[in-house]
């Protein structure tokens, strides 16, 4: 028995395009002797299709497209994910088809309903038979969350399977690869059979899928592994599954994180048909890393940076922004904002009525920069990438309609300490970010001699508090017990809770942590509950 796995990048809603991709692979592997060709979860619609699933015409189109694939098949059987609609209920399904049409449908048994997953909003739990016979092999079917459920795995003992196949659309997070490895081990221990795991790759709005499809032998060792953050495919025989496992790969956390941001940025820009991107370059590390990721994702001809200096902008910031652009070979301009600022202040002088200078004047600078970027965006059809990181987003260290103005936030789920790590990792490949950008103290440069540390604790203190409170739901007491200063913890948690209204108005960004803002953490803005200090 020859099996082929297809790890591709389907586009949500592009049923015709996804079917065309499937057709090409079927023609390729059918002619090369594959008996079974396996695609990923909801391949025909892309994942997650969200409220498109509520449209009857969308569901009908998806099913017809899968049925039509049978005309491409000569000898093989094909396993592909699609949504189905039966008796007024929707299912997340896998269709087994051959040249005669669909011969079996398996409906996903276990529906995830946490963090970014809300499948119970759309689907009903399946109860269909989850295996089929191929010659003398009994092959089990499962879809993504099924194999994460111990009850589902226990049920497979009764089926006496020879092989279990899992169609997946599993988004990448910092811990996902390790968690999958644990699942693979558990399946081998409980069932003592091989597992074929087929995941999609690509970016979809906030989510990014790493692929890393795997073939695992009955001892729980990976026999074949497809690329991470890239399309890939493979053909092998059933007998090869239980051969010696591949050599142990050295896990590279920073490479995975960096590659995830590059792929998510590339797909968001290209799938939404933007001509290129525009970035406000401050000479600081966040805009430098954002510009570098964008260049790696799109190429230097599709990235443009604008430095908008003011009287508080240091000469080294202006020079470093220009040097970054030179290193990346991207277009770069300087547009001073002092005249625009003075014009605003002149018009506002009577209203301000000699009131004390405060954050208002700082925010005005940022908003002028935001307006400038959005004007160029409109004129030239470029997507503005905002540069704020997770640390700033958490505590509201940003200006609404200023540095939050834009369409996509590459670093929204990347803490400041991780920004430094990723910058050093990228420079280790070839140095493009000027070293001084990495080593100098971070500053918004909205006031004389301003530093981030004037308003916030050091990021080595701030970031762990944010992680404990936002990602792990630790109480104030529990965070303090981790060794943090009580007043600092109270201040940071107060800022996180207060600034929910800012986060709700900021652009979406890539999710790489186990729990991000937006889909991962949905708090009410109007909210009178306060943590018990």
Structural descriptors:
533 residues, alpha/beta, Nitrilase/N-carbamoyl-D-aminoacid amidohydrolase, Rossmann fold, 2 domains, 6-stranded mixed β-sheet, elongated
Structural account:
Helices cover about 40% and strands about 20% of the residues. The protein has 16 helices and 19 strands. The protein has helices at about 15-30, 55-70, 150-160, 175-190, 255-270, 285-300, 315-330, 340-350, 360-380, 390-395, 415-430, 435-440, 460-470, 475-480, 485-500, 500-505; strands spanning about 1-5, 35-40, 75-85, 90-100, 100-105, 130-135, 135-145, 165-170, 195-200, 200-205, 205-210, 215, 220-225, 230-235, 275-280, 305, 330-335, 385, 410. Strands 5-4-3-2-1-14 form a 6-stranded mixed sheet, with helices on one face. Helix 5 (about 255-270) crosses helix 11, helix 6 (about 285-300) runs parallel beside helix 7 (about 315-330) and helix 6 crosses helix 11 (about 415-430). The longest helix has 22 residues, at about 360-380. The relative contact order is 0.08. The mean pLDDT is about 95.
Describe the sheet with the most strands. 6 strands, mixed
Query: If you compute it from the alpha carbons, what radius of gyration comes out, rounded to the nearest whole angstrom?
Result: 26 Å
List the strand order in the largest sheet. 5-4-3-2-1-14
Find the structural class using helix and strand composition: alpha/beta
Low-confidence stretches: none
Nearest-integer average pLDDT: 94
Q: How much of the polypeptide forms β-strand, as a percent range? A: 15-25%
Examine the coordinates and then state which fold CATH places here, giving the name of the CATH topology of the largest domain: Nitrilase/N-carbamoyl-D-aminoacid amidohydrolase
CATH superfamily (homologous) name of the largest domain = Carbon-nitrogen hydrolase
CATH classification class of the largest domain: Alpha Beta
How far is it from the N-terminal to the C-terminal residue, by CA? 63 Å
Q: State the shape.
A: elongated
What is the number of helices? Answer: 16
């Amino acid at each position: 028995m020859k099996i082929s796995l297809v790890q591709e990048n389907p586009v949500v809603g592009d049923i015709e395009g996804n079917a065309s991709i499937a057709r090409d692979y079927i023609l390729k592997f059918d002619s090369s002797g594959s008996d079974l060709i396996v695609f990923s979860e909801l391949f025909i619609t892309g994942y997650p299709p969200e409220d498109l699933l509520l449209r009857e015409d969308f569901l009908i189109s998806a099913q017809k497209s899968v049925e039509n694939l049978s005309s491409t098949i000569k000898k093989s059987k094909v396993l592909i994910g699609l949504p189905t609609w039966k008796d007024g209920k929707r299912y997340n399904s896998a269709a087994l088809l051959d040249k005669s049409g669909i011969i079996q449908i398996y409906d996903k048994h276990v529906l995830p309903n946490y963090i970014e997953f809300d499948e119970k909003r759309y689907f009903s739990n399946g109860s269909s038979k989850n295996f089929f016979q191929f010659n003398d092999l009994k092959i089990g079917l499962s879809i993504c969350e099924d194999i994460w459920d111990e009850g589902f795995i226990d049920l497979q003992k009764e089926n006496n399977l020879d092989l279990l196949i899992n169609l997946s659309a599993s988004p990448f997070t910092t811990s996902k690869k390790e968690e999958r490895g644990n699942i693979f081990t558990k399946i081998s221990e409980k069932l003592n059979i091989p597992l074929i795991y087929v995941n999609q790759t690509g970016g979809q709005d906030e989510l990014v899928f790493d692929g890393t499809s795997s073939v695992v032998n009955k001892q729980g060792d990976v026999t074949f592994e497809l690329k991470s953050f890239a399309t890939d495919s493979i053909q092998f025989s059933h007998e090869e599954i239980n051969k010696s496992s591949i050599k142990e790969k050295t896990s590279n956390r920073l490479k995975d994180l960096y590659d995830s941001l590059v792929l998510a940025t590339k797909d968001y820009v290209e799938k939404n048909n933007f001509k290129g991107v525009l970035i406000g370059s401050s000479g600081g590390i966040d805009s430098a890393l954002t510009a570098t990721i964008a260049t790696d994702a799109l190429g230097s001809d599709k990235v443009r940076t604008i430095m908008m200096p003011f009287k508080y902008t240091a000469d080294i910031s202006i020079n470093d922004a220009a040097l970054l652009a030179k290193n990346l070979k991207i277009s770069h301009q300087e547009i001073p904002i002092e005249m625009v600022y003075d014009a605003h202040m002149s018009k506002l002088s009577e209203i301000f009525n000699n009131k004390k200078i405060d954050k208002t004047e700082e925010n005005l600078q940022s908003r002028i920069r935001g307006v400038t970027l959005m004007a160029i965006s409109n004129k030239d059809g470029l997507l503005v990438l905002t540069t704020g990181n997770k640390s700033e987003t958490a505590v509201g260290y940003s200006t609404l309609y200023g540095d939050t103005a834009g369409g996509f936030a590459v670093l929204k789920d990347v803490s400041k300490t991780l920004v430094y790590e990723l910058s050093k990792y990228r420079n280790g490949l070839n140095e493009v970010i000027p070293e001084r950008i990495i080593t100098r103290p971070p500053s918004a440069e909205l006031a004389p001699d301003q530093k981030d540390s004037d308003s916030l604790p050091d990021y080595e203190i701030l970031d762990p508090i944010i992680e404990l409170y936002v990602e792990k739901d630790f109480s104030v007491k529990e965070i303090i017990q981790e060794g943090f200063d009580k007043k600092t913890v109270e201040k940071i948690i107060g800022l996180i809770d207060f600034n929910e209204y800012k986060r709700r108005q900021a652009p979406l960004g890539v999710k790489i942590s186990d729990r991000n803002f937006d889909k991962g953490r949905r708090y009410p803005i109007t909210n009178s509950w306060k943590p018990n200090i």
